[in-house]
Known about the structure:
GO terms for molecular function: GTP binding; GTPase activity; signal recognition particle binding. Its EC number is 3.6.5.4. This protein is of the alpha/beta class and 381 residues long. The protein contains 13 helices and eight strands. Helix 3 (93-106) crosses helix 13 and helix 6 (153-165) runs antiparallel to helix 13. Guanosine-5'-triphosphate is lined by residues 189, 191-197, 219, 222, 225, 274-275, 333-334, 336-337, 359-362, 366.
Amino acid sequence: MEWLYLVIGIAVLGVIALVGLVTTRVRGSKRDLPGASTDVLAPPRPQQTPPAPADTTEAPEAPVETPVEPAAPTLDRPEKASSRLVRLRQRLAGSNALGRGLLGLLSRDKLDEDTWEAIEDLLIGADIGVGPTQELVERLRERLRVEGGAADARAVLREELIALVDPTMDRSLQVSGADGAPGVVLVVGVNGTGKTTTVGKIARILVADERSVLLAAADTFRAAAAEQLSTWGERVGVEVVRGPEGGDPASVAFDAVRTGIEDGVDTVVVDTAGRLQNKQGLMDELGKVKRVLEKQLPVTEVLLVLDATTGQNGLIQAKVFAEVVDVTGIVLTKLDGSAKGGIVVAVQRQLGVPVKLVGLGEGPDDLAPFDAAAFVDALLS
Ligand SMILES: Nc1nc2c(ncn2[C@@H]2O[C@H](COP(=O)(O)OP(=O)(O)OP(=O)(O)O)[C@@H](O)[C@H]2O)c(=O)[nH]1
């Protein structure tokens, strides 16, 4: 019996050993299958790329992002006043017909009475005025007679014309107040002479000279004038004080000077209306504007704007304005469109005040400080 138990035990052990061997073989063969996976729906694994070799060069730095500032409005850079008359001298083309005409006559071999008469006609035609014409002709006759053939007609004419225009007059603009207070420039003139345009151009001259400026749109009569002035101001970053259309011009002027004092600007330039029904209305309004301005600060300059193409009419206007306000300087506009440069002499004689600025075109920087010698040189060029 014992041997039977022994045989059964050996047989059981053999079976166990056989089953264990088969299981191990099956597992081993599964592990060896390429791509074997427990889940067939799983997406194929992305192929692993070998790690890049270590880069020994420095990686470029990522650009640093700077915050974008809102674009500042681009402002005009007005031309310096000193270079303007030279640039604009060819604009006096109409007037230099006068210079050429005079030189042609004076260069004749014989200066007879007919020639002197022709010279007089030329001068009067150029609006120099009767008195200054006679004075000039007398001086020329005298000098050419005394100096005789040795005289250089051109040089003599140049000297005498400069003397007539008067280089001794103070033509500087009074744009500064006392003790650091703003200077106040009051601009007057009949409408259409180029007054508003001139105020805009004066602002540019001051800005080019690095002065701070405030404009007062005290021409409340014409709505477009305030708009026009604002456009001039915006181009050079100058503030414009405005009032309601048809409002009191004196109150706009007052507000502007108060703002100018508060802001500490160098100069306040005041535009005024010129379109008034009668002389009394004009007197009342301009007188009031000036009085109201002077409650706060003295007016340092009163500029009268005259259109050079209007000839005698301009002289009559000049007289009326001079009665209303103390004009301290004249701005002659549209000299580019006029053959009558002689008006410079006539108006200075009439008012006894200097031409300080001349308008020689519609461009923003076509307003130049007046200079007697440069003007005469342009006439004779
Ligand atoms: N050719 C030329 N034109 C000029 C000159 N100055 C001004 N003008 C022109 O003259 C016209 C009238 O100018 P404004 O400034 O509007 O005249 P204003 O006197 O202010 O007129 P109101 O505002 O109605 O009183 C405009 O077309 C200007 O461009 C100049 O020197 N030469």
